[in-house]
Amino acid sequence: MKKLEQLYEGKAKKVFKTDDPELYIVDYKDDATAFNGEKKGTIMGKGVINNRVSNHLMKMLETHGIPTHFVEEISERETVVKKVTIVPLEVIVRNIAAGSLSKRLGLPEGTKMKSTVLEYSYKDDALGDPMVNDYHIAAMGLATKEELETIAGYALKVNEILSEYLKDLNIELIDFKLEFGKTSDGTIILADEISPDTCRFWDSTTGEKLDKDRFRRDMGGVEDAYKEVMKRLLGE
Ligand code: C5P
């Protein structure tokens, strides 16, 4: 397969066309941003780690019946994925209060909630990715009712599978963000990435943060935290 022209450059990844009309190549960068691009930096080696971690988790989820965009890892930073049109929603699942939910609702970080929270944000940088509900999504035509049911079902199932999987690695899954895409035949599949950039991972014993909050909050030890996640997941 040939890597052709760049289609898109996002904050953490570039996407390239290939000579197969149904496949793209994603190239993971070391660039890090936070707070809707206000904070910028580099996390050395992040692209390699996120590529490998995300692919590992997508493959694991596939074995549990979640359809994903993953096709083949072709280098340290590059992966072949199925071509999709991204549904313009950030799908956020929360088990423990943290981050923007803690701020919004006044629940201290680490508060155990009585049940899982599912949130959607409309992916729009200019608007700052505002939170939307099922009614906004239907009214704006961002997804049909059926599509949103599929997305919600997959997101909650991913939470169950991933929480269990990480528990064995002494990692508590606090919250995470998913994105879904539609293939040319209209099938909804899991897309984007699952990595320390998009999840909150806390060490189950010490509560140490092993994710992008170390970058967002200038806590130091960012690279080491990403490396630790890769080590626990991939054994290296
Ligand atoms: O910031 P907030 O608490 O809403 O984030 C919830 C979860 O979604 C966190 O795991 C965070 O890493 C992820 N997230 C993301 N990309 C965004 C917003 C949140 O990956 N643009």
Shape: globular
The N- to C-terminal Cα distance equals 29 Å
Mean pLDDT: 98
Q: Which molecules are bound in this entry?
A: cytidine-5'-monophosphate
Helical region count? Answer: 6
Question: N-to-C SSE series?
Answer: EEEEEHEEEEHEEHHEEEHH
Gyration radius, to the nearest Å?
17 Å
The biggest beta sheet reads:
7 strands, antiparallel
What percent of the residues sit in helical stretches (DSSP H or I)?
25-40%
Low-confidence stretches: none
Main structural class: alpha+beta
Q: In total, how many beta strands?
A: 14
Proportion of beta-strand residues:
25-35%
EC number: 6.3.2.6
Pathway: Purine metabolism; IMP biosynthesis via de novo pathway; 5-amino-1-(5-phospho-D-ribosyl)imidazole-4-carboxamide from 5-amino-1-(5-phospho-D-ribosyl)imidazole-4-carboxylate: step 1/2
Catalytic activity: 5-amino-1-(5-phospho-D-ribosyl)imidazole-4-carboxylate + L-aspartate + ATP = (2S)-2-[5-amino-1-(5-phospho-beta-D-ribosyl)imidazole-4-carboxamido]succinate + ADP + phosphate + 2 H(+)
GO molecular function, one term: phosphoribosylaminoimidazolesuccinocarboxamide synthase activity
What does this protein structure show overall?
The protein has 236 residues and is of the alpha+beta class. It has helices spanning 46-63, 99-105, 134-140, 145-167, 213-216, 222-234, and strands at residues 3-9, 13-18, 23-28, 31-34, 39-42, 70-73, 78-82, 85-86, 89-96, 112-122, 131-132, 171-182, 188-191, 199-203. Strands 8, 9, 10, 11, 12, 13 and 14 form a 7-stranded antiparallel sheet that branches. Strands 1-2-3-7-6 form a 5-stranded antiparallel sheet. It has a two-stranded antiparallel ribbon with strand order 4-5. Helix 1 (46-63) runs parallel beside helix 6 (222-234). The protein is globular, with a radius of gyration of 17 Å. The model has no long low-confidence stretch (mean pLDDT 98). Cytidine-5'-monophosphate (C5P) is lined by residues 90, 92, 98-101, 129, 175-177, 198-200, 212. Its EC number is 6.3.2.6. Keywords: ATP-binding, Ligase, Nucleotide-binding, Purine biosynthesis. Pathway: Purine metabolism; IMP biosynthesis via de novo pathway; 5-amino-1-(5-phospho-D-ribosyl)imidazole-4-carboxamide from 5-amino-1-(5-phospho-D-ribosyl)imidazole-4-carboxylate: step 1/2.
